[in-house]
Amino acid sequence: MMRDRVCLFCLAPEAMSVKFDRRGKPFLRCYACGVRAFMPSLQALNGVAILTPYAESVVDRMAHDPTYASAKRQEVATMVDAIRARLTTPVGAPSAPIERTPALSSQGRTA
Ligand SMILES: [Zn+2]
């Protein structure tokens, strides 16, 4: 994986490459989305090596098959919606007061 490949995060073609930090640890860098994913060792690149050709095949098919592309975009939207639903406080909004669960007394009733 010496040449730039598809980004596993944003799927931009030929945008991700393997770099090495000052300590010789590998990291992935995407020039399209800006992600930097640091790896503790070369072993962490196993999944990258196996999944990158799959991601490239998905991107290629999306470019030529509008139905497939629409289904993949829907998968992304579904995941993003699920993540947004887990957010309890919008980014930048003041945090809501924390609701505290009443403590149980030794008899099992709330104090
Ligand atoms: Zn990217």
What does it look like?
With 111 residues, this protein is α+β, with helices and mostly antiparallel strands. It has a domain at 16-86. It contains 2 helices and 3 strands. It has helices at 46-64, 66-86; strands spanning 16-20, 26-30, 36-38. Strands 1-2-3 form a 3-stranded antiparallel beta sheet, with no helix packed on it. A hairpin with a 5-residue loop joins β1 and β2. The model is unreliable at 98-111 (pLDDT under 50). Zinc ion binds at residues 7, 9-10, 12, 15, 30, 32-33, 35.
Number of DSSP E strands:
3
Q: What letter string, H or E per element, gives the SSE order?
A: EEEHH
Tell me, rounded to a whole number, the average pLDDT.
84
Terminal-residue CA separation? 61 Å
Radius of gyration: 22 Å
What is the count of DSSP helices, taking H or I runs of 4+ residues? 2
- Report on the biggest sheet: 3 strands, antiparallel
pLDDT < 50 stretches: 98-111
The largest sheet has its strands arranged as 1-2-3
Strand content: 5-15%
* Global outline: globular
Helix/strand/pairing category: alpha+beta
Q: Report the helical percentage.
A: 25-40%
Short key terms for the protein model shown above:
111 residues, alpha+beta, globular, binds zinc ion
Q: Which helices and strands occur, and which strands form pairs?
A:
Layout: E1 16-20, E2 26-30, E3 36-38, H1 46-64, H2 66-86
Antiparallel strand pairs: 1-2, 2-3
The chain binds zinc ion.
Zinc ion binds at residues 7, 9-10, 12, 15, 30, 32-33, 35.
